[in-house]
Amino acid sequence: MVRNSPVLKPLLIAVRFQTRDSNQMLLGGEKAGTSCCALKCPRNKPTDSAVAMFMVVSFQVPFGLLRRAAMEKWSLMTITVLLALTVRWTVSLSSYSGAGKPPMYGDYEAQRHWQEVTYNLPVRQWYFNTTDNNLLYWGLDYPPLTAYHSLVCAYIAKLINPDWIALHTSRGYESQPHKLFMRTTVLVADLLVYIPAVILYCFSLKETSTKKKVSSALCILLYPGLILIDHGHFQYNSVSLGLALWGVLCLSYDWDLLGSVAFCLALNYKQMELYHSLPFFCYLLGKCFKKGLKGKGLVLLTKIAGTVVVSFAICWLPFCTDMEQIMQVLRRLFPIDRGLFEDKVANIWYSLSVLIKIKNIISPQTQLKLSFAVTFLSLLPACVKLTAQPSLRGFKFALVSCALSFFLFSFQVHEKSILLVSVPVCLIINEIPFMATWFLLVSTFSMLPLLLKDGLLLAYTVTMLAFLSVCTTSFSIFEKTSAEDLQLKQFSLSLKGYVSWFKSFPKIVRMLFLVSITLMAVLSVMSAMVHPPQRLPDLFPLAVSVISCLHFILFLVYFNVVILWDSKNSKSQKKIS
User: Fold this and answer.
1) Is the pTM of this model over 0.70?
2) 130-146: buried (b, 16+ CB within 10 Å) or exposed (e) per residue?
3) Rounded to whole angstroms, how far apart are CA atoms 99 and 72?
4) Collapsed DSSP state (helix, strand, coil) of residue 34
5) Contacts of 110 (CB under 8 A, 6+ apart)
6) 336-379 pLDDT, tens per residue?
7) Cross-strand partners of 413
8) How far is Cα 564 from Cα 498, in angstroms, rounded to an integer?
9) Which positions ≥6 away from 209 have C-beta within 8 Å?
10) Lowest-pLDDT choice from 136-150, 202-216, 549-563
């Protein structure tokens, strides 16, 4: 039966020819079939069946094992996603920004109001101040894709309850059914954009075990900062960050045009994605240089430029009717008159304002120029290195470094902007789990004043402890504090003759980590339970911001050291032909 099988017949013929050729070589050109060995006798019929059965089994066993491993991997990822969704939905049961606090309420009302505006007003009025659109009351100040997203949500809201988006009368609308609807829109956006990008990114990690891939996905999806802001405070950061992550994923597979489209969509959803724009630009430009600007490199550069122009043109098409429309949208996206910083943000300008009242000394225009100059100088080393030596690993570290430079030094920074640094850090958690975990904890802690204002203390405490436990268990972070584990081997070798304490570096790092965690825990408890002195009402928010800022400055130095001392011939460097 096996011998007469139409499927195996070509296989048997191939085996005969291969065996005959091998016999001729072994026997000095003798004809096949002269040896008494069964394998040298192509006309031996029982041998045909035996060989065929052996080859079928040989193929089936590894395929079966691979199939079982793949099923196990997907099962673990499914459990990870379900756990992440459960945590998100549990956090969404908490309060939200501005709940029951008229007249301005908070970001929850801002998102609802944008649905009201985009549904009831024509496109040309979305960004203009009119009798029906008071820009002082949560005027639309995000790019067109955010407006389109609000419009889609508004159409769904209209089908459920028209009162939710009724012009003027829906202002400040709050109810349990509406809260359920709004929370669901965030969860669906997360499930459609961000979570799939995280899962596929973790699957794409090379030279990484299945356990490590699942652990990376679990830690990324349980990062408390993004969960608390999107599903607690209430925003849609997972959309823009998810689109940027899709861009990173596409570039990792050399799908440069798709990666460019994904990042353009991210930038057209939230303008803060400019934090990531220079690494994308420098990586692709460096790649074109490597290919040669007189050949394939020029072709690739032209294709990327065309893709970017077309992507922006499609996104902005409804606003391209006249130049005034475009300029008004840009004025709404980049409001210079708001000043250098707002609220208690953990960046350098707010921290310095404790000692020097920068806003009172320097004019807004000078503040803008100063912040631009300092930001540019701080991100220059990473961008130059990435352009000269484009690699996927260098690209991911440059995303972290450049975003952190923008957060610390740029103009008009919000405390929530730290998420633009945190998500790139999540991408390298499998490479430097200790430092990544430390940074992600500090980034969430830096938003504590905002979270306490929204009544998210319990959610903050539980998610922080859970995240620390998961990272500690999954990556054994306290065992990975050597110079090599922290990607500082090249740097340590350069300092070996000058710094005697570098041998004790792992112990010092672990001690600093424990001191940092203890300090954050104490300040969290005091912020929640202790009333500050009357003459210093902002004492605890100020302390949180300044301490977080000091952490971020040290992290910026660390990430730049890793980037600049990264070996050119590193195993992880992606070869670009």
Assistant:
1) yes
2) eeebeeeebbbbbbbbb
3) 43
4) coil
5) 138
6) 777 787 778 999 999 998 888 887 888 888 888 999 999 999 99
7) 341
8) 19
9) none
10) 202-216
